[in-house]
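User: Quick sanity check before I run a bigger batch. Here is a single chain. Can you write out its predicted 3D structure?
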Amino acid sequence: MVGYTEALTDPSYYGQILCMTYPLIGNYGVPSMEIRDQHGIPKYFESDKIQVKGLLIYELSSVASHWSCIRTLDEWLHQEKIPGIYGIDTRDLTKKIRIGGVMMGAISVSETSIDEMKMSKMTKIERYDRQNFLPKVSITDPQEYGDINRECVVLLDTGVKYSIIRNIVNLGYRVICVRWDTSYEKIISYKPKGVVISNGPGDPKACKATIKTASKLIRASVPTLGICLGNQILALAAGADTYKLKFGHRGQNKPCINKQNNQAYITTQNHGYGIDPSSLDKTDFKVWFSNADDETIEGIQHRTKPIIAVQFHPEASPGPYDCIFVFNRFKELIEKNNASIKLKRSNATSISHIKTKKEENCQRTKQ
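Assistant: Done. Predicted structure follows.
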């Protein structure tokens, strides 16, 4: 019913045509990008532009009424040159996708008759899974958010949503957002307390540079949180495998079960790939969350290292905020890791002090 401004600006949808199943869309219009939170992050959008390639809805609201509304959905799409169609039986289309699986589609805008043969040929030539979309959704230069005096968390931007940045800053950290192919060495040069690998579009196996970086983060035991695409990247970096889901998980009401306490959570999801369960057994990761509908893997955690990941979106936007605790769990891992490092340094200093005393005693004995 709500959340179309967040969904349309979610970079995970880049390269896709989005079909909304709720019948009426656009009734509260589109707010201003200038409305920002206390961190200077746009409040009602997940990136700085519409990311979908097209929009399909059943009924477009001709009236938009809300205190924050500055334009209609139709005007917004027109301004950003994104094609949209209404009058489509979106629920019937969704049933077809549920049976036949995700398929290529095309939208054509024309004042003359449309060449259906040409459009059909386009859908057969183009392949979504062969493309690496990360250069198109990631930043080019590092950006910082939050108090410059705070300890930092490095965010690998593989198509990050603003809400993820907001939640990390709310934990009390400064966020340094870097492009998707940033090396491990560059990340470590920022002296981060932890690393987050974000959500994003496309096949995780196309993210070879990010997988290489993630494998080094795992080996170095750097506190790390993976979200959506980041979950798949960490699994691949650990030696597991991923596969394309028949129709993916997309929506604001997907139930997931925490395998630690068997508690169910309602989650927001947007992904078309998953982790192969049999391949995960060969790694040092174990299942943290599973999908209540089809038992696919929805979260993993390392058996011995401070590394966790979830397939769903703990920040939601849109959707329920039931899983914000995932960010708090990440903070706990960072603090526990910091305490462990301080203890090791303290012990090393004590041992060094003891050695020095022994050397002094030996020297006195010789004299």
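The chain has a mean pLDDT of 93.

User: Great, the batch can go ahead then.
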